Amino acid sequence: MKENKEIWEKAKRIVVKIGSSLVTNEGKGVDQEAINRWVSQFRHLQEQGKEVILVSSGAIAEGVVRLGFEKRPTEIHELQACAAVGQMGLAHAYEKCFAAHDLVAAQLLLTHADLANRERYLNARHTLLALLKLKAVPIINENDTVITDEIKVGDNDTLGALTTNLVDADILVILTDQEGMFTADPRNDPNAELISRAAAGSADLESMAGGAGSSIGKGGMLTKILAAKRAARSGASTVIVSGRIPDVLVRLSEGESLGTLLVSESEPLSARRQWMADHLQLKGYCVIDEGAVQAIRKGKSLLPIGVKSVQGEFLKGEVISCFDQEGKEVARGLSNFSAETARKLKGKHSSEIEDTVGYIERQELIHHDNMVLIQSAN
Ligand SMILES: Nc1ncnc2c1ncn2[C@@H]1O[C@H](COP(=O)(O)OP(=O)(O)O)[C@@H](O)[C@H]1O
Ligand SMILES: N[C@@H](CCC(=O)OP(=O)(O)O)C(=O)O
Asked: Structural domain of residue 207, as residue ranges?
C-alpha cells in the first residue's frame, strides 16, 4: 500500500467534509472557534499549493437552534425550514472566518438533479474549477430546502464523494466526532479498536460500520466508508478523522498517520463512466440473461436479444441499470432507446429491430462505450 506521505505529497486537490456535530458543537449552535481553526488550516494548505473544497453539514442542526426547537423536528417542512434558516448561520460563520484569514469563500447548494443531468453536472464542474483557479474556496451543502427524500443525495458523506469525483480531487477528508473508523461503534463498544489503514471498498469494513451515534449527524460510519468506496472510483483516497485534533489537516498533509486512511487501489474510471456510476437514482433498468452478463463483462455492447425485461420509464439517452436474474446490478449506461421501445425490442434479434419499430437507429440497447461495469453493490 502507498505511504501516507506519498499520497499527501502528490495530492493537489482536497475535499474536506465536516459533519454537523462538529460544526455545531454537538448541536449547541455554530462553533465559530472550531470553524476558525479549520479555516486557518485551509489557508495553510493553500499556501502549500493545494486546492481546498469544503463540504459542510450543519444547516439543519443550526436551524434547529435558531428556530428554538427543543429537538430536531421530524416533519419534512419543518426540517426544510431549519435548513433554510441554518444555512444563513453557516454562511455567515464561514464568511467571517474566511475574511479574517484573507480567503474568499463561495457557496454552492447542490441537488441530486444537478449531478444526475450531464449538462448541469458539467456546469457545476466548470464553476467549481473556475472558483479553484481564482483561489476561492467553494463551500458545498445539499440544497435541503427544495428537495424531498426520494430525490435527495441524502447525506453529506455521499455528497463529499460525489464532489471528489466531480472535480477529480486526490483526497477526501471526512472530519467527524470520532478519532476515525473503529472495529465497532466506540459509543457502544469500549473494546472497539481504531483501524488506521485499509483498502477503500474492502468488504469487511461495511460490517463494522454502524449508523449515526447521535441525533445530530445523519449518516454515521456506514455512509463514510461507502463514500470512500465511491471516491476510490476516481482514484481518490479517503481519511476519516476527528476534526477536533489540533492542526489535523496540516498534520495529515505532512504525512502524519491520523484517523483511518482508506486507500484507493483501483484504476480510476474515465470521467463519463464515473458520472454514470455516481447516479444515485435511475429512472429504469433492464434484467438481462446470463449470456448478456458474460458478454458485457467481456467488453461487448448490450443487445436487445439478451434483455429479459425492462422496468421503469426512461428516455433515449438516459442512464439505466442492468441487473442479472439474481437481482445484482452488473452495469449501467446510456440507453439508445426509450423504455417503451426497449420493451418492444426485448428478446429480439438485431435483424428484427426494423420490423418491430419501423427503423434502425442503433442495434445495441447500451453501447459498450457508454457503459460502466459495476463490480459490487453501490
Ligand atoms: N465503526 C465505527 N467507528 C466509529 N464510529 C462509528 C462506527 N459505527 C458507528 N459510528 C458512529 O458514527 C458517528 C459519526 O457519524 P455521524 O454522527 O453521522 O457524524 P457526522 O456528523 O460527523 O457525519 C460516531 O459518532 C459513531 O457513534
Ligand atoms: N445537509 C444537511 C447535512 C446532512 C448530513 O449528512 O449531516 P452529517 O451526517 O452531519 O454530515 C445539513 O446541512 O443539515
From this structure: 4-268
